[in-house]
Amino acid sequence: MARLPVGIRFIVSFSRDQWYRAFIFILTFLLYASFHLSRKPISIVKGELHRYCAAVNEGEVEFNSQNQKAGDVPPHQRPDNETDCGWAPFDRDNYQQLLGALDYSFLCAYAIGMYLSGIIGERLPIRYYLTFGMLASGAFTALFGLGYFYNIHSFGFYVVTQIVNGLVQTTGWPSVVTCLSNWFGKGRRGLIMGVWNSHTSVGNILGSLIAGYWVSTCWGLSFIVPGAIVAAMGIVCFLFLIEHPRDIACSSTLTAGVIEFSLCLLFAKLVSYTFLFWLPLYITNVDHLDAQKAGELSTLFDVGGIFGGILAGVISDRLEKRASTCGLMLLLAAPTLYIFSTISKMGLEATIAMLLLSGALVSGPYALITTAVSADLGTHKSLKGNSHALATVTAIIDGTGSVGAALGPLLAGLLSPSGWNNVFYMLMFADACALLFLIRLIHKELSCPRSAMGNQVPFKEQ
């Protein structure tokens, strides 16, 4: 009998259960990456909605981001916009407050909706609930971009679109975390979810690149294309997502600090989402780059976030100390943000280095809390294996975090007119608050290593 080819031997070396777990890992990764892909365009397009310009001669305008004349009006630009400083109503002097209001509308709706999402989601099949959310999110993301093609200049239109989009996007996180936790036990959950949580950064990177491709020529497509991608992934979810191993007769694995971790996440997510929504504009102002190049450069923050999430998962698995791992990264993040605000003005090289480092330290605790910690608490022995409780616990933690996500960009919009240094001081204060809420848990972990969260000893996977 001939020896089987190497490739076939590799395939059959894995059990049916392992292949299904790998499939669910990849599928949920792509599903939530598409959610983040659709959130990123607004930060990229901000530089196009309001372009910095100053009158030079009568009938001529000089752009800091694009050297054009006033006569070079884009096809969909309002003809009566004398200075051509962007897309009305964001061409006004109070554009930062208006853009901040868009962020706040989305994130506040997301925060409120997250509390409801866990309650609703635990009563519905995950596959149907997630599919609905992705199709609706795709529709409202695209609707924002249609404002460009239909020449809509109503601020209310864009605010309402952001609010509804924020609500429907809350279907994503409790659903994918619950599904993944159904398939993976606690033994290597930190590492697995640390790698898996890089979907956030991958989605942000892809969203930046896709939105940046059209931002200067046709910014409406910067929203319509990501919206179409999310909707398409919703169809994939409906066709292929398997909620629980028991649905296909696979063997199932056995899959207190909620308040502290929730409040910690509030401030950690405040910092992360401020970078998500305002980093490209900051780079535009400091390094004097156009919107597309600033968007591309901002992806380095998310690249750093990928490594930060994985590193946090590996360290917390090895030490079996989730809170202490988060605390260490938060402790290092605050001075790193100060250094970033100081040396990022020295040139692109300094900006690149600090983007990578800041991304790792800011995203690490955020990634760990929203994945491994949420799953640990949601499968706590006191819940007696109630899988519905995992969705509720996850929603509570991420919902509280989303309150911070709503406040961060809003505060950035209010503080940035007085100087970007004030924004960074706010972010450093938020990091300190996040660390403060973990002090009790860190002390408990260090004094009683295996009982800080009531169930730290990993279960053996079947």
Structure report:
With 462 residues, this protein is mainly α. It has one domain: Growth Hormone, Chain: A, CATH 1.20.1250.20. The chain is 71% helix and 1% strand. The protein contains 17 helices and two strands. The protein has helices spanning 6-12, 16-39, 41-49, 95-121, 126-149, 155-168, 172-183, 189-196, 199-214, 221-240, 258-287, 291-319, 322-343, 348-378, 387-415, 420-436, 439-447, and strands spanning 53-55, 61-63. It has a two-stranded antiparallel ribbon. Helix 2 packs across helix 9 (199-214), helix 8 runs antiparallel to helix 12 (291-319) and helix 13 packs antiparallel against helix 16. It is globular.
By DSSP, the count of extended strands is 2
Name the helix and strand elements from N-terminus to C-terminus, one letter apiece.
Answer: HHHEEHHHHHHHHHHHHHH
CATH topology: Growth Hormone, Chain: A
List low-confidence stretches: 54-83, 251-256, 451-462
Largest sheet: 2 strands, antiparallel
The count of helical stretches stands at 17
Helix content: over 70%
Assign the structural class, choosing from mainly alpha, mainly beta, alpha/beta, alpha+beta, or little secondary structure. mainly alpha
Which architecture would the CATH scheme give at its second level? Up-down Bundle
CATH superfamily: MFS general substrate transporter like domains
- Provide the number of structural domains: 1
Q: Which word captures the global form?
A: globular
How big is the Rg? 23 Å
Regarding CATH, which class? Answer: Mainly Alpha
